[in-house]
Design goal:
Length: 321
Amino acid sequence: MSGLVSAIIPVFNRPAQIIEAVVSVLEQNYRPLEIIVVDDGSTDETFAVMQQLKAQYPLLIKLLQTVNRGPGLAREAGRQLAGGDYIQYLDSDDVLYSNKFELQIKALEQNPQCQIAYGKTRYRTEHGTSNSAHGKRTGERIDTMFPSFLASRWWNTLTPLYRRSVCDRVGPWLDLKQEEDWEYDARVAALGIKLCFVDEFVCEFRSHSEDRLSQAQINLCTKLRSIAQARQLIYKHAIEAGLDPTFSEMQIFSRSAFHLARQCGAAGLRNESQKLFALSRRASGKPNKKEYLFYLLFAQAIGWRFLGQLCCWGDRIKIGK
């Protein structure tokens, strides 16, 4: 169907919030659309709730149930079912504003050289309060994802609307438990695609006390391993895009990798700590600067774990001041 938007929503144990997310898509003033909900192994009434909602909108809602594998693979399962010309990823705890598809598709139609449209994202706290300011950098007009996406993922999963062709080119979501969205968008960024900006609030990111990821609880070491893997891949995508240490964003990424190397060391993940340390050195363009040489010397002398614990303790002291 020409112009179809496929909204893909992974969910795990969120019976109330998933209804709000789905309704926010149903209330779009744009048609045609389809909603693909991927129940990622929920252990409560979430799937039953979605079956009831699907019964009310059988032509608009597709429902898939999988074993719990995390949000990345859940989104990929939904992408495989999607038939739209446009792809909207939406987390089960966020909502779209009713004009999102209309505004972003209009922007893409008026700018055929662009492959992704994004607009301003409003942030709402767990207490229900929000303000008029846009979240992250979603209120800025930025033409390409790199180099800025190397410093940070400056939008949220619900912010962009992708042309289907982009999602086909970038390939599948990976089996990462953390930062799977940043890795995915860094892969998109490496394609050199153009962005178009909609100067309107189009969606709402909701903060709350629960784990935001649509998956079962995972321990700290699993999270850190996944983040370490994602950072390696993000760096690879940046190099493919032609970024090097002369970019200030690469220097920010380097410092972040060094900080994460210390955290991995403190958690006893020596292999990940060493790899991130090496990554930080490469990204900095100054692998032999004193800070790196001294850190390596002490790590070899007292161990990567103990040094990581000392550095993390020192970071907490600085933050406390």
